[in-house]
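To whoever picks this up:

The parser on our side crashed when reading a file containing two proteins. I've narrowed it down to the boundary between the first structure block and the second sequence. Both blocks are reproduced below exactly, byte for byte. First block:
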Amino acid sequence: MIILENRLTEVFDQLPEIDGFKPVYKWGDTKHLNAIIKRFSENNKTPYPLIYQLSETSTQNTIKNEASARLVLIIACQNADVSLLNENRWAMSYQNILYPMVSNIEKCFNRSGITQWDGQYTMTNYPNYGNDPKDENPQIDIWDAVRIELTNPMIINDRCIHTIKF
C-alpha cells in the first residue's frame, strides 16, 4: 500500500526555503489545520509557507505498487495586514512566496521520479482569506493563499525519490 502523505512528505522535504523559511507540508481537514496553526503559534513558530493537502481518497494498485488521487493543495502564507490592496498583496505574497512555491511544487511533481501527472490543474487565488464567519471554511489565521486542484489523478509509486534540482 502506498501512503500518499508519506511519499509527498519525502518529496516536499526537498523544497528550498522561500523568503527565508522552509515550507511546511501537512494534511487533513479544517479542524486539523486550525489545530496545527494553533500549536505552531503556542510554540512561537510559524507554519508558513504552508502546503496543506486536503484529505483525499486514493485508489491503490497493489500489483503495480502505485496509488492515485486527485490532489487538492492549499499553499498559504500569513499576511495579517487586511488593509493591503490587491496590488500590494500580489507583490508581497503572490510574486515573492506563493507563485514561486507553486512553481517548485510543479518541479517536485515533474522531477521526483515517484509521481506521474499530466501537468493540468485549476488554481484559485484567495487574497486576505481568513476568519470571516461567513466563509465556508473559517480559519484561525489570515492568509494569502492559492488552491491547486489537479484536473486528473496523480499516480504515486514506491520507487526511490530522485534528488530534485530547483
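<<boundary where parser fails>>
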Amino acid sequence: MPSTIAPSAQIEEPASPAKLKLIRQFMQLIGLQDRLDTGSFLERYAIPGGPMWAVAPGEFTESLSDEFKARFDALKAAYAKRRAAYQRAYEDHLNWEFTEAELKQINAFLEKPVGKHYLDGRWRMEAYTTTNTEDMEQDIVKEALASLKE
C-alpha cells in the first residue's frame, strides 16, 4: 500500500515568540540543534576518501586522526560564517511545515519515554541496517554498473 505524504502547514508569516520557542525545543529534542551547534553534520566531508582527501597514496604526513581533525577544523571554521543562516533556514522551514499546535503535540510526545525510545530506536535501526546491508548495496551498485556496460 503506497504511503501518502502529510501536507505541510505552509505558514508564510514569521513565527511568534511562543512558536519559535517550540521550534527550538523540537530542534533540541531531535538532536538537530546539537548538530547545528557543533557542525557535526559536516564530518562526512572530512572522512578519508571524501572530497577533502585529494592526496595520493603514501602522501600522509600525519596520522589519520590528525588529518581528519585538521580537515574537520577547517570545515567548522568555514561553517562558522554561515552558522546563523543554517539556524534560520531550519527555523523558517519548521515554522512553514508545522502549526504551533502540531509542535506542542510532537514535542510532548518526544519528551515522553516512548518518544525518546522512538528517536533512539529509529537511529539504531538506520545504523544497524545500514551496516548489515552494506555488502548488499555494494553488490547492487556493482550489478547496476555491469548492466550499463551491456
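After patching the parser it read the second block fine. The chain is about 70% helix and 0% strand. The first helix runs from residue 17 to 29.
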